[in-house]
Every structure is written in structure tokens, then in C-alpha cells.
Amino acid sequence: MARAMSDTLNPAELTQSLVELLTVKRDGEHLFTGSVQPGGVGRMFGGQVVAQALQAAQHTAPEGMEAHSLHAYFLRGGKEGVPIEYRVEADFDGRSFANRRAVASQEGSAILNLTASFQQPEDGLEHVDAEMPEVTSPEDLEPDAEVRRRFLDSLDDVSDVQRAMFERPRPIEIRSPCAMHWMSTEKRPPRTYSWFRTVGTLPDDPRIHRAVIAYASDYTLLGTAALPHGLSWARGELKGASLDHALWFHRPARADEWLLYATESPWSGAGRGFNQGRIFDCSGRLVASVAQEGVIRLAKGK
């Protein structure tokens, strides 16, 4: 069971809490249980379900094969405080590739379907047609905890639930040159840039680094589609939920070292927003690509 992420935990303990949250318990050959977020309220964070489903799939993959992609569909919103069951099916085992299908369920109802593909590492033709954007280095940006605190100070009325959510110490630190963009009423181009890493050192197991990247890839993505409209979830103007999530791992990367997440939204309409993301390491190498579509609607009365 993941430990509570409270003010009493130091960075190493916060990071260990995330590792424990993303560690699934094996209950059978292809059956796993995912931990719940201690103190979680309301709807479960989608990145947690994706990361746990990936972990379950990784634990059943053939020896030596590494996850190179996943495709997930969110069926229902997960509930905080309720354990998740992950049932994994081994759909294909080949010499170079393998495929696993994981279904996440709560209280007997499926909440997510995920398919992950695995590959035996090999050399091949290489090219990259994606340059890392020129953005301010993370060392020159304020921590997201300070941004959240400044946001709370700007509000006239803050509920205890809001304050607890914004002030809760987090195992992943985010620093962005677009800080507070999600609160602005100004219409902006649909692009954001965010640095992220765990606040402490992760184990050397590549599977947990892929799981943490999958977890963090659900941050900031859907909100990119709201920027051209000058609207914000934080102000209660929008309602939304992720519909699907796809992630491709291009090369190994450490999630406890700064990674740049560049997102863009080329389209929104029909009550949906489409978003894409690219993740780079500090040396400018493209390490992962992301795509997601989600519901984005005006809140009633807005």
C-alpha cells in the first residue's frame, strides 16, 4: 500500500510513495491489484490507471522484451479509495515482438482497456525529425509548488478541499515557462512546455521509469486544447475527461532527471479536443511521443 504523501515526507520518501503506488500486486499468473492513492478524493487520476496497467502488462512480458508503445481507452472514471483489478491477456508472443492486453476494473466494472506492445531490443535505421524547443532551463524556473501557492493567494474564496489538493506535496515536480497559463483568460496558441522529474531518485529498473513517464504523460495534455478559448478547468468554466491515450517509447530515459514535455492541440470540436506531446531529455533527444483525445465541454451556466 502506498504511503500517504504528507508534509512529513522528504523527497526520497515522496518518490518511494510514487514507486509503491505504481507497483502492482500479483494475485495470479495474469491477475494484479493496483494500490490506491492515500488521501485521494473524487475521480482517480487517469495517468495512475495507465501506469498501473502498463506495470501489470510489463510483469507478464517475455524475458528481455521492453515496452515500446501502449494504447488505452478510458471507459469510466476511476474512484479514489477503491482498489483496481488488472487482468492481463497474452495475445501474442513472437521472436521480435509480443502483445499484452490489460483490462482495469473497479467493483466489477471495466474502467480502462490497455494494449501494450513489447520488442526485443535491436539495432536499426535511425532518423529524428523533431527538434527540442528552445525554452528556459528548469533551474531558472520557479517550482510548481510556488506557482500553486501563488494561485491560491489570488483566489477570494478557497475551500478546504481545494487548498488540500493544491498544497499536497507531490512526488513529481513540474516547472514551466508557461506557469499559470491554465488560469489565464487570455486566448493563446495551443502549445505548452513543461519540465518534469521525480523529486527523488528512482530505482534503476527501466520498467518503473517507463511507468512514471506514462503517469506524467497525462499531465497538462488535455488542457492544451483549452488555451485558444481562454477558458479554464480551475475556474470551473470547463468539464472534461480523457477518452483515449497513446504513448510510444522511443529510447530509454530516466524519469528522475529533467524531461521536457512539449504539447500541442491541432484541433478541437464536437465536444472533443485532440492533443499531441513530445518528450525530450536534457540532451535534446526525443524519448517518447504521446497522443490523446478527450471530452472538452463548457460547464453548465458558463
Structure description:
The protein has a 12-stranded antiparallel β-sheet, covered by helices on one side. The chain has 302 residues and is α+β, with helices and mostly antiparallel strands. Mean pLDDT is 92; it is low at 1-6. Helices cover 18% and strands 35% of the residues. It has a single domain (11-120, 145-298), classed as Beta Barrel (Porin), CATH 2.40.160.
How many domains? The number is 1
CATH fold-level label = Porin
Oligomer: single chain
* Parts with pLDDT < 50 across at least 5 consecutive residues: 1-6
Percent in strands: 35-45%
- The shape is globular
Based on the structure given, which CATH architecture is correct? Beta Barrel
What is the CATH H-level superfamily?
Answer: Acyl-CoA thioesterase, double hotdog domain
